[in-house]
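To: structure subgroup
Subject: Chain for Friday's discussion

All,

I'm putting the inputs and outputs inline so they're searchable in the archive.
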Amino acid sequence: MFGLLFGLISFVVICVLSILFARIAEQKVKQSLHQTLGHHSNYVRFMRDKHDLNKIGFAQQLMRRMEGFSSFGSSFSSLSVIGGAIFLIGPSVEAGGTLVIGVGWPILAFFGLMTACSVAALTSAFPTAGSCNDGVVASGRRRIGIVSGWFHFSGNILLLVLTNVLLASWLNSVAFAAFGYPAKAWVFYIGLIVLFVTQLLASGRGARWMGWFFSTAAWLQAIMTLAAVVTLSIFAWPGLYPIELLYTPESLFNNFDIGFQDHSSLLLGMLLLQRMFLGFDHAGQLAEETIDPRITVPWSIYFSVVYTFIFGTVLFTVMLLHYPVGTEVFFSYEGITSWFLKFWEIGGRAVLALVTFIIAIIGWSSGISAMTSASRTLFAMARNDAVPFARIFAVVSERSRSPQQAILFVTLLAGGIAIFSQQVGWKLTDKTTLIQWVAAIIVILHLAYVIPIGLKLVRSLKGSLKLHSGPWHLGRLGGVIDTISTAWLVLSAACVLWFIVPELLVGLGAFTVILLLYAELNHRHLLKRGPYRIVGSTRLSKKSLEELVRIERKFPQL
C-alpha cells in the first residue's frame, strides 16, 4: 500500500511541478521585451531571428524553417518512449526488478525535469547551434567551453551508434521471425549501413525536410503509445498482476527470478533507463533552423521531458501489468520485447507489419535526431575554430542550407565505430556491453550539461556579472533548479562510474586529458590571432555586420 501511495504521489508531484514551472516561464516570457510576432509575416519573423543571431556574431546560413512542433519532435524523438519500451524496459527490469519503473522512473523524471529547465534557460539566452558551449565561451571560459562542446559531440556520436545498432539488430531478428531466413551477420551489417546512409540523406536535405520527419515521428510515437495502452487494456484487461507489483522489492513468484537482488541492482536498472532522459536538448542544436528559437526551443526541450514522463509512466505500467512473466514462453523480462510485438498478432499480419514499420520509423528518427545534434555541434565548434579542419566542417551547402561536410563526417565516424565495436566483440545487444555503453554516454553527456549549468550557478553565487539571460527562464527559482541540476549531474555521473569496468574508466580518463590538452593548445593558438570575442559583450565573432550580410547573400532564405 505504501508503494502504491508513493507512486501516485510522485506522479502528481511531478505533474504539478511541470504545470508550475510552465506557468512561471510563461509569465517571464510575457514580462520580457521579447515579442513572438506570431501575427506578422514570415519575413518579419525571419528578420528578427536573423538579427538576434547577428548580435551574437554569426551569419544566418542554415535554413530557418522549423516550427514549434517540429522542434519539439526533434527532442521527443530522441527520448523515444516506444524505443524505450522495445529496447530498454526489458534489460532495465531484468537488472533491477519492477521497482525500476515504480520507484526509479519517477526519480529519473524529477531530476530530468530539473536539468531540462536549466538547459532550456541556456538555449533561450544563446539560440545558436552550439548554445550550451557558446554560453560558456561568452562568459570568458573558452577552454572549458571547448571541452563542453567536445563532450556533447562525443556523447551524441555514442547515442547514434547505440540507437542504430539496437535498431538494426532488432530488425534483423524481426525479419528472421517473419521470413525464416538465417540471421546472418552480413544481413545485420547491411541493415546497419542502410540505416546510416538513409539518415545521412535525410539529414542533408535541410530544415524543411527535417521538420517534417520530426513532426511525423512525434505524432507516430504519440499514436503508437495510445494505441498500445488502449489495445492492451481492452484485450487483456484487467491484467495479470496488481499494480503493487511495481513497488515490490522481492519477487512475487517462487519459480523464477525477476532480477532484483539488492540496491545496486536497482541502480543498475535505473542506469539503463536513464537513457530515456538523454538527448532532450537536441532541439537546442537546431536553434538556428527554428523560427523564434528563444521561445520555441526552450518549450520544446521542456515539454519533451514532461510528455516522455507521462507517456512512459502509462505505457510501461500497462506493459508490466499485462506481461505474462514466469510462463513457459516468457520466463524472464528480457522477453518483453518479443511479447509486445507478438501481442499485435491479434489484428492479423497486416496490423503486425504496420506496427513493426512504425516502430522502425520511430527508431530511425531517434537516430536522425542524434545525427543532427552531433553534426550541428561540430558545425558550431568549427565556426568557433574549436576543432581540427574547422574550415571544412564550418562549410554550409548553398543548395540545402545544411552543414553537409559535418553530417558526412558524423555518419562515417559513427558508422565506423558501430562496425568496429561489433567486429571486436562489443555486442551492444549483450546486456553487459549495453550497460557499459550507456554508462559512458551518461558520464560524457552529464559532463557536457554540468559545465554550462555549473558555471552559471557559480557566477551567480559569487555575485559577479550575470550571464545574458533569455526571455524563457524561471526567475529566482532558476537558481534553486540550477543547484539541483548540478548536484544531480555530478552525483549521478559519479555513481555511474562505479559500474564502469576499469578498462573503460582508463579510456574515459585518457579522453578527458586529451580534450583538456587540446583545449589549452587551441586557446593559446587563437590568442595569437587576437581576442576571440569582444570583451563585455556576448558576441562570439569579430565579424562586422557588413561581413555577416555579405555571407548571408549566398544563402537566401525567403
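Points worth raising on Friday:
Residues 142-179 form the longest helix (38 residues).
Residues 5 and 389 are 56 Å apart (CA to CA).

D.
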